Amino acid sequence: MVIQMKSSLLLIVVFVLVLTAILISPAMATQYNPPWAHNYDFLYPDSDTRPCALLAKNNLSSINYNAYATTNSNYLSAFNNFKDDAVFFFIGHGFRSQQIPGLEHRGGAITFWDGNQYTLIAAQNNGYWPTYEPSKYITNYTTELKDVLLVVYAACYTGRTHYNLGNLVDKTFNYGGADYVIGFTDEVNESHIKYWADRFWYRCTYQRIKDANEGAKVEVVLKESDYGGVNLQNLKYRLTYTEYIYPARYGVI
To answer: Is 106 contained in some domain?
Structure first.
């Protein structure tokens, strides 16, 4: 009887310890190891951000991310991959309503192009949609983005608040739970944003994210003689978790 009681108590203790470990361990959005990093660029009818995704991919691969580069990706593929990413990078067009002019009708989304159709990943939709592009929203997620370490929306107006769609950076950070998000509040010159992105991802392989961002902006000025909009940013971050993107890892919930 004593032996049986001791065995039962031991099992209870082991169960409690295992349960405690599960509860206090940070929940992971994915089990992929090494962590994913997806990078998207586009050959739009009026703009070409190639080969920015490839340069980002190579830099992220050098610090052991399982990094991918795609041109003219489908928005559904990007939306589905986002929830499993440690790093998400988009360089292309932000959103501007063609039907309604005015700054309040810009921002809130990134614009994908598959060679035939424009599509969007947007912050939110409050019931009135000003365009006909097929769309997915950050608010379609629940907790899936909480383990994303770094998001970079390198496009015009990605840090601006749209009157209906809201603010893409704020939604990704506050609602989605990503650790570090960068967007741009105004127009950015194409050559400037491409050079900023190239230098930012290179610097991220050995610097803190904030330092990489500031250093890349300085390099843009030295090369182009002005900022070209790359200094007009909306940044959100949880510094405890996101000072560096290396070693390759996910964010922490």
So the answer is: yes
Provide the mean pLDDT of the chain. Answer: 87
What pTM was estimated for this model as a whole? 0.86
CB 29 within 8 A of CB 145: yes
Confidence tier at 102 by pLDDT (50, 70, 90): confident
As a whole number of angstroms, the distance between CA 229 and CA 184 comes to 8
Query: Looking at the domain assignment, is residue 113 inside a domain?
Result: yes
Q: Does 120 reside within a domain?
A: yes
Q: What is the domain count for the chain?
A: 1
Q: What is the CATH number of the domain that holds 41?
A: 3.40.50.1460
pLDDT at site 30: 53
Q: What is the per-residue DSSP string for 217-234?
A: HHHHHHHHSS-TTTT-EE
